[in-house]
Specification:
This protein has 235 residues and is an all-beta fold. Helix content is 0%, strand content 36%. The radius of gyration is 22 Å and the shape is flat.
Length: 235
């Protein structure tokens, strides 16, 4: 039996129209801050302290998909021909989904037995599928095959060791092709611990866009699927 964990993030492109993004902080209702060092004005004595939390969760026996990245390709101009390789601008997502704004893709494999000497590894793989780009205004799009995201990152980190790092692929995700493309793949003997890959720099990912795209904001879902039984996904 094959077990899958699926999370979705979003790819965003604003064509000709800028999109403002704001971040709103949420205050802790139980906080004692702000607090003054003294009850007297202009006092050069006294001190004040505040407490925060440090948290870590340790797991054993599970394969988990921990984080998937949103991808924002900013703003571009309409062109008469296909616009190739628009670089990644940020990871600011505009849709409420599982995506994060740091560009992090993370998998943790804590399965197997660990007796302090050996760890039994079980291969896994992670795929990505790009849905169809659509406009909130309903503007007509060119053929979906004109749209594609290139995942160009070649490296990542593994919490156990560099030798334990799974293979990182550089697939081209074509909009609406319904294909699962290989992004990460472990083999017998590696992939345990936490594996992290970042897509947060301009050359980490790029977008191909069709010609004569009407002005507007276009979004497409990216479905990231973690397979406990590796699949024969395309690259």
């Amino acid at each position: 039996m094959t077990y899958k964990v699926v999370l979705s993030s979003v790819s965003v492109l604003a064509a000709l129209v800028g999109v403002g993004i704001s971040t709103v902080g949420v205050a802790n209702a139980q906080s004692n801050l702000p607090a003054a060092t003294s009850t007297k004005q202009n006092d050069a004595s006294g001190s004040v302290s505040g407490k925060s939390d440090a948290t870590v969760k340790v797991e054993q026996g599970y394969l988990t998909l921990d984080a998937v990245p949103d991808m924002n390709f900013g703003m571009t101009a309409q062109t008469k021909t296909a616009n190739k390789n628009i670089p990644l601008v940020s990871n600011a997502g505009l849709i409420d989904d599982d995506g994060n704004d740091s560009g992090m893709l993370k998998v943790t494999d804590s399965r197997g037995t660990d007796d302090g000497k050996t760890v039994t590894t079980m291969p896994w793989n992670l795929t990505a599928q790009l849905g169809s780009f659509s406009s909130a205004s309903g503007a007509a799009l060119t053929s979906s095959s004109d749209w594609a995201i290139h995942l160009n990152q070649t490296a990542g980190t593994n919490s156990v060791s560099a030798a334990n790092m799974p293979a990182v692929y550089q697939p081209v995700l074509t909009s609406g092709d319904n294909a699962e493309h290989q992004v990460l793949k472990s083999s017998q003997g590696n992939g345990t611990g936490s594996t992290t890959v970042y897509y947060n720099k301009a050359n980490d990912a790029s977008l191909d866009m069709g010609a004569n795209v009407p002005a507007g904001q276009y979004d497409a879902p990216i479905t990231w699927t973690l397979n406990a039984t590796p699949t024969s996904a395309s690259n």
